[in-house]
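ok trying again, last paste got cut off:
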Amino acid sequence: MKKEELRSRLFGTWQLVSSVMRREDGEIRDQLGHEPSGFLNYPAEGYVRAVLGARNRPALATNDTGIPTGAEFASEISSFLTSCGLFTVDAFGQAVTHVVEVCLFPNWVGHSENKTVHFVGEQLTLLTDSRRMNTFGKFAPRSAAGQNAEWNNSIDYIHREA
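nice, full thing came through this time. structure:
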């Protein structure tokens, strides 16, 4: 696929279907639960927006966003992610890079996330570059060859019409 073809195919809003991590030994972890909720948006101006979370997150004890308990805050952070920033596609039309400018997880701000892109019909799958993948608070180990030694991160979306 050519660069401009990939860019135009990404345009629009994508609804989250799954967000899983797969170990080389076959173990699978649903990052945001069995039925995650969320959207990824690639508009023409070149900024990607992602809002992803577990579908049935428990309500907080208060409606005041400024005073959740420490345990509530930790639970919410571990089951929700939002980020925004510029996106570019590679010259070969096989990958997209998200340059994180705003993120719920501040450690990611200023970093780029390289994602291999696959389309099957109206489904989009993004595979995260193993060098940038975060596995529950720890960076995934890499082999001597620089490849992901343990986890593969796959996020699936379906195209959503307005």
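cool. Helices lie at 3-10, 70-78. The chain has one domain: 3-160.
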